[in-house]
Structures are given as structure tokens and as C-alpha cells.
TrEMBL record:
The keyword Transmembrane applies. GO terms for biological process: phosphatidic acid biosynthetic process. InterPro entries: Plipid/glycerol_acylTrfase. SUPFAM superfamilies: Glycerol-3-phosphate (1)-acyltransferase. Keywords: Acyltransferase, Membrane, Transferase, Transmembrane, Transmembrane helix. Pathway: Lipid metabolism. Residues 72-186 form the Phospholipid/glycerol acyltransferase domain. This is 1-acyl-sn-glycerol-3-phosphate acyltransferase. The chain crosses the membrane at residues 12-31. It comes from Hoeflea halophila.
Amino acid sequence: MLALRSILFNLAFYINLIVRMIVFSPYYFLAERKKAWSVPKNWVRANHWLQAKIAGTTFEIEGLENIPEGGYIFAPKHQSFWDAYALLPWLDDPVYILKRELMWIPLFGQYVSKMKMIPVNRGARGKVMAEVLERTKREIDSGRQLIIYPEGTRRPAGAPPDYKYGIARLYRDLQVPVVPVVMHPGLFWPRRKFLRFPGHFKVRVLPPIAPGMDPDAFMEKLVEVMETASDKLLVETVEANPQIPLREHAKRRLRELGALPSDPRLQ
């Protein structure tokens, strides 16, 4: 049954994507940019509904009151394809810095170009990176929210932290608050797996870190705040979902925390 529900959800997910791109593309490309956000945001909402009804996976968001107005850096944990899109409806006008190669994908490239995403050659240095920073600052100053995953790439729930210093440089140069976000969707939508596990999890938005700190001190605080909150939420999520199978990273971290010693999944 799990495999069948997972297959059905995956099919529905991509059908939802393709149909909406066909049906709503004329409006998307003709509408004013901020109004056009309704197309991808409604796609996200539909995905949440499909995931709840077909896969049996639901979520809630805590701490929305911690999201400031205007421009800021949104810094979530990154475990799954889910968190690459799932929080868009709760952000006013988000912007990503993304690989320029993504702009070359037919139709998708035009979609992200419409939203003024910021392409970058990851091997670039010097003047090119200065231009990327300048454009990022313009977007932030106009009130947009820069989405940055502090660890750079998807990591399994419970994996040792691997934060990249790039977010500290952006924090220093952009002079805006950083909003840390922790969650464990990777327990329900694992990386590179087709199974979609049922259950319920929380997304926790933490209080923003104000601008003005030394970058090294900021980095130390960001890691401490996010990892402490992530560990706590991992224990809560695993405890609340006894049906979820645990991968080795999560098991190891829970053992290190001394949590749930009687849980048979940790044996």
C-alpha cells in the first residue's frame, strides 16, 4: 500500500506540474510579476493537498510571527525536494540565487527568469561574483526575501552539520536579518527515494538574527541556534511518528542525544 500510494502521489505531483504550466502559462507570462506569483504558489498549495490526501503526509508551521516585513535572508534546513518549494506561499516575494544552467531548461528557465531569480556560474570569481552580490542587494532592498540553504545541499535528517560560510558573507554584505528555519521533511520524503511516508511534521521558524554581528560570531550563533532547534524537533518528530522508518543518520543522532531509548527503531 505504501508503494502504491507513493507511486500515485508522484504521478499526481508531476501531472499537477505539467497541467498547470500548460493552462496557466499565458496568465503567468502576461501578468505583472508579483501577481504572477499566484501560479507557482497555488501549485504548491495543490501539492500539499495531494500529499495529504494521497500520501497521508501533513505538516504545520510554527513561528510565522518571527518572519519580519521587507527584505531578509530566509535560511531553512534542506533535506528534501519538498523544502525547495513548500514554503513559497508564506513568503511575499522570494528570490533564489541559482545555477545559471537551470535557466537553460525550456519553459522552466523562462518561469524563473520572469521572477527575476539570480543566475550564477558557480565557478565564477571576482567581478562576476561582485555583480551577483550587487544584484542580490538590489532585490533585497526592494523588499524581497533571499532563500539560502546554509548547508548548501540536501542532507539526511540527523546528519552532522555542514554549514557553508557563504551565508555569513551574505549576512555581512546585505545587512539584513537572517531567519533560521528547521524541519525534518526528509523523514517523509527521503532524498533520492520514491517512497512518500505518511505522518505529520512541523516546520519551525526561529526568531531572526539581527544584522550587524561579526560574520564569524554570526556563523557560530546560526549553527548553534539551528542545530539545537533541529535536534529538539527531530526528537519530537520521531516520537510523534512511530510508523516512520529511520535511516542511519537519524538513528545515530538520536542515540547521541540519549533520546527515545526504548524506541525499537533505535535498537
